[in-house]
Amino acid sequence: MESVVTGLLVLVGIIHLLPVSGVLGVKRLAALYGVSLGEPNLEILMRHRAILFGLLGLFLLYAAFQPALQSIAIVAGVISVVSFIAIAWSVGGYNDAIRKVVIADIIATVGLVAAATIHAAIRISP
């Protein structure tokens, strides 16, 4: 069962690493999110966001193989994906590219809930 938790955290880590290519610039960000970033301040924010996702993705991948870190990684991952889904749903009107991100985050949420459940069961069992 521990290998299932590892696999789920690897999956969620990879999902979080996908936007890292946005750090390369406006063209890549536009391809990822289907938005125009004509303003330098927005480019700065979005490229920084890509770096933060990279950090979280790397942490999730590392924690996948470090059982002592898995609980905090699961919590961090859940906060990340659930907050994006909630913001997207509350704002609404998003494009197809953002819808793909929402779908990926829903998949990640399911994986994290499963990982949390299995991880808790492993910790509880004698």
Please name the defining characteristics of this protein:
transmembrane; nucleotidyltransferase activity; nucleotidyltransferase; 5 helices; mainly alpha
Structure characterization notes:
- By secondary structure, the protein is an all-alpha fold.
- It is built from five helices and no strands.
- The chain has one domain (2-124).
- The protein has helices at residues 2-17, 26-33, 40-64, 70-91, 96-124.
- Helix 1 crosses helix 4 (70-91) and helix 3 (40-64) runs antiparallel to helix 4.
- The protein is elongated and about 55 Å long.
- The relative contact order is 0.18.
- This is Phosphopantetheine adenylyltransferase.
- Keywords: Membrane, Nucleotidyltransferase, Transferase, Transmembrane, Transmembrane helix.
- The chain crosses the membrane at residues 6-26, 47-65, 71-89, 101-122.
Mean pLDDT: 94
Share of residues in helices? over 70%
Largest sheet: none
Q: Total helix count?
A: 5
Q: How many β-strand stretches?
A: 0
Classify the beta-strand content into a percent band: under 5%
Short overview:
The chain is mostly helical and 126 residues long. The protein is built from five helices and no strands. It has one domain (2-124).
Please specify the SSE layout and strand pairing.
Layout: H1 2-17, H2 26-33, H3 40-64, H4 70-91, H5 96-124
Helix pairs in contact: 1-3, 1-4, 1-5, 3-4, 4-5
